[in-house]
Amino acid sequence: MGLLDGKTALVTGGSTGIGLASAVRLAAEGAHVFLTGRRKAELDAAVELIGPAATAVTGDIADLADLDRLYAAVRDRGRGLDVLFANASVASLAPLEQITEEHFDTLFGINVRGTLFTVQKALPLLNDGASVILNGSTNGDVGDEALGVYAATKAATRSFARTWAAELRGRGIRVNTVTPGPTETPALLALTPDPEDFKRHLSARVPLGRLARPEEIAAAVAFLASGQSSFVTGSSLYVDGGLNQI
């Protein structure tokens, strides 16, 4: 038996990277997984990979009408929602003197506004005892150059988890943050014109000496999604190879 047999899960940003790995893992644990993302071709490939345990709904979490369409599909299945992994987020580099309105609005629009309304609009569908997981980042704790806006969005995400854990405790709904360190995903490598040098630089900073694999973050997501973490709420689970711990 899987950890999530008979459960229904939703993963935003589920077509690639940590989101895709998490969708694969949650389905392997027995859940039916809804995936959403902006790129239909990648979502279709994800569904083909996972099989009949997956349903894709194309959309942008920053667009409230898209969120309404997504949750209408979940509602039509008639089983509510037991796991919500609010994973979708974007990152880009800009030092303070180069930050533009577009840079700020894009990152806060998706990472903060989009995450907030992803969770808010899920509330009528969340079953009592559900697990909500927000995707954080070790950048929310530190001051890495050129990542100021991104780090601020992840600090906001961490704050949301604490507040929502308090607000939803009456329904037994747990809210936690999974906090990855540098993870080898297409989004990470797209930040730089020299991915191999970037990987070497980041790996040298991690005590375990390498980047995380998306599957390793997905394992933490599965733990937070399941009853194995039944006494965990409001927390941040670091999966960072020791980066922010040592």
Task: Please describe the topology of this protein.
Layout: E1 8-12, H1 17-28, E2 32-37, H2 40-50, E3 54-58, H3 64-77, E4 81-86, H4 101-122, E5 126-135, H5 148-167, E6 174-180, H6 186-189, H7 195-205, H8 214-225, E7 236-239
Helix pairs in contact: 1-8, 3-4, 4-5
Overview of the structural elements:
With about 250 residues, this protein is of the alpha/beta class. The chain has 8 helices and 7 strands, in the order βαβαβαβαβαβαααβ. It has helices spanning about 15-30, 40-50, 65-75, 100-120, 150-165, 185-190, 195-205, 215-225; strands at about 10, 30-35, 55-60, 80-85, 125-135, 175-180, 235-240. Strands 3-2-1-4-5-6-7 form a 7-stranded parallel sheet, with helices on both faces. Helix 1 (about 15-30) links the parallel strand 1 and strand 2 (about 30-35). Helix 4 runs parallel beside helix 5 (about 150-165).
Descriptive keywords:
single chain, about 250 residues, alpha/beta, Rossmann fold, seven-stranded parallel beta sheet, about 15% strand
Uncertain residue ranges: none
The helix/strand class is alpha/beta
Number of discrete helical segments: 8
**Biggest sheet statistics:** 7 strands, parallel
Alpha-carbon distance between the termini?
A: 37 Å
Name given to the CATH homologous superfamily = NAD(P)-binding Rossmann-like Domain
The CATH class assignment is Alpha Beta
Average per-residue pLDDT, rounded, comes to 98
Query: Total number of β-strand segments?
Result: 7
> Can you give the helix content as a percent range?
40-55%
The third-level CATH topology is Rossmann fold
- What's the number of structural domains? 1
- With strands numbered from the N-terminus, the spatial order across the biggest sheet is 3-2-1-4-5-6-7
Task: Please state the oligomeric state of the protein chains shown.
Answer: single chain
CATH architecture: 3-Layer(aba) Sandwich
The gyration radius over C-alpha positions equals 17 Å
Shape verdict: globular
Order of helices and strands: EHEHEHEHEHEHHHE
Approximately what portion of the residues adopt beta-strand conformation? Answer: 15-25%
